[in-house]
Write a structure and sequence with these properties.
Structural class: mainly alpha
Largest sheet: none
Number of strands: 0
Number of helices: 7
Strand content: under 5%
Shape: elongated
Radius of gyration: 19 Å
Distance between the termini: 33 Å
C-alpha cells in the first residue's frame, strides 16, 4: 500500500492527478481507512481476545510445561500484532520475515499441538469479534502464521500434491 501512495505522490510532482489517478488514490485512502479501523479494533480488543483463548487453554492439558505454554501464548500475541501491522501496511513480506524469526524461537515439533490449538482458538475468536470483511483482511496473515509455525498446508494445495 505504501508504494501505491508513493507512486501517486511522485506522479503529482509532475502534474495534477488526472481523474483515473484520483480515483485510484481515493480507493487507496478508503482501503487504508478500513485497515486502520480493523487495526484499532484489534488493538482495543487484544486483551479480550487473548483472555478468551487463555480461558479455553486452561480447560485442556498439554505436554508442555507451564512456562513453555506461556511463552508460546506470548508469541501468538506477537503473531497477531505482526499480522495486524502487515495488514495495515499491506506489506505481507514483513510478516514473512518476522515469522521466519519467530519459527526459530517457537516452531519446534514439541510445540506443534499447542501452536495449532492457539491458532485455532485465535481464528475462532477473531471470526466472532470481527465483521466478515475485517476477518477477510486479516485471514491471509493468520493463515501464513499458521502455515509457518504449525507447518500445516492449505487444504487446496494438499489436494493438488
Amino acid at each position: 500500500m505504501q508504494s501505491n501512495f508513493e507512486d501517486y505522490l511522485r506522479a503529482a510532482e509532475d502534474h495534477y492527478l488526472q481523474t483515473p489517478e484520483m480515483n485510484g488514490f481515493k480507493q487507496q485512502v478508503d482501503a487504508l481507512q478500513d485497515r486502520l479501523a480493523l487495526y484499532e479494533t484489534l488493538r482495543d480488543q487484544e486483551l479480550i481476545i487473548f483472555q478468551a483463548i487463555a480461558d479455553q487453554l486452561n480447560k485442556e492439558t498439554f505436554s508442555n510445561s507451564q512456562s513453555d505454554q506461556e511463552k508460546v501464548f506470548t508469541h501468538w500475541m506477537s503473531v497477531l500484532r505482526y499480522s495486524a501491522m502487515a495488514m495495515l501496511t499491506d506489506q505481507p513480506q514483513t510478516l514473512t520475515i518476522q515469522l521466519s524469526w519467530l519459527k526459530g524461537v517457537v516452531g519446534g515439533s514439541e510445540f506443534t499441538t499447542l501452536n495449532q490449538k492457539i491458532g485455532e482458538l485465535l481464528h475462532q475468536c477473531l471470526s466472532s469479534i470481527l465483521t466478515q470483511d475485517q476477518f477477510a483482511l486479516l485471514e491471509p496473515s493468520l493463515n501464513e502464521a499458521g502455515n509457518t509455525l504449525i507447518g500445516k498446508s492449505e487444504p487446496e494445495l494438499a489436494l493438488l500434491s
